Structures are given as structure tokens and as C-alpha cells.
Input
Amino acid sequence: MKLANASNLYLSILAALLIFLACNSTVETHAESSRLDVMSMFIPSGWMGDGEQGQRYIAFADGWRKGCYSEPVCVRVSYKPGPAGWGGIYWQNKPDNWGDRPGEDFKRAGYKKLTFWAKGDAGAEVVEFKAGGIDSPGKRYRDSFEKTTGKVVLTKEWKQYTLDLSEEDLSSVIGGFAWIATESANVDGATFYLDDVFYER
Output
């Protein structure tokens, strides 16, 4: 009986140690990596505006395999204006996290910019891209920064865009990346592609 109890105690200590090492490994990865893949780290769960109706107005495919900048897959978004007159999606650190749970602490990681590649399907699509900015009233947590490209006009060719984060406080990152499109700028809708979204040193 004593042997069984000792064995259980050993297994409990070992499990706790493994959890501790896994958590610290994640922190060290953030701190040591020269860049972080947003599409792997964050979840495209923050559907906004017309996106709150699901895929009725926004067709979203994050496993698109045609004409990607970096094979094998990229993201394809097709926005059709609905009653809200605008739509968008946030990549959040936890599913549907609008401030109920803490953000990621990237302060030690030393990321200085967010880079991504984008192109339009027909060209002339007008889309705003941003990082941070989640600050929901009444919620305990929020993003510690907000940075936007403003509205950009996409072309049919892949182009890299950069958000300068060198002066930003990255101690709480909930909304890792987002796009927003409006009906006023895209009367007939907008179809565009995204690839290689990274936080970089």
C-alpha cells in the first residue's frame, strides 16, 4: 500500500514538472524565436459586423491551395456586404476572446514589426489590416496596443505590408491580427488572399 502511494506521489510530481517545463518552453519560444507565425498561434474566431452572421456574408478558407505566396496553403476571404455594412475577422489568442481571458505577453520577445502578404482577386479591393485594438467595455482584459495600416487598395499581385511595432507595448496581445472591409469601399464585395503573417524582431 505504501509502495502504491509513493508511486502515485512520484507520478503526480512528474506530471507537475512536465506541465511546468511545457509552460516555460512556450515562454522561451516567444522570447528566443526571431518571428512568430500568427496563423499558427492565433485563432480566426473574432468574426465582426456582417461576420457575426457566420459564413452568410463572409466566406473564409484558411486552407486555400491555389496561387498562394508560400505553399502549400494560404487564406482566402470573400466578403459580401450585409446589413451591418462592414465585416471583419480577428485572429485571437483564445477562441472568441474579447477580453475575458488574458492576452499573450510578447514584451520580452522583442518583436518590432508585423509583416504579411496580401493580394486581391480582381484588384482594387479596399481592406484595412490591424493588430491589437480589442478593448471591449466591461471586460477584464484588453490589448495593450493598436496599430493599423489604414485602408489599403490591393492589387492582383502579392505585396508585403508591414506594421511598425517598435514603439508599441506588446505586454498583452489578444487580437494578433485582423482585417476589416466596408460596403462603402467595396460596393460589390471583396475577395482577397493572405499569407505569411508574422511578428518579427
Observations:
- Residues 33 and 118 are 24 Å apart (CA to CA).
- Residues 1-32 form one domain.
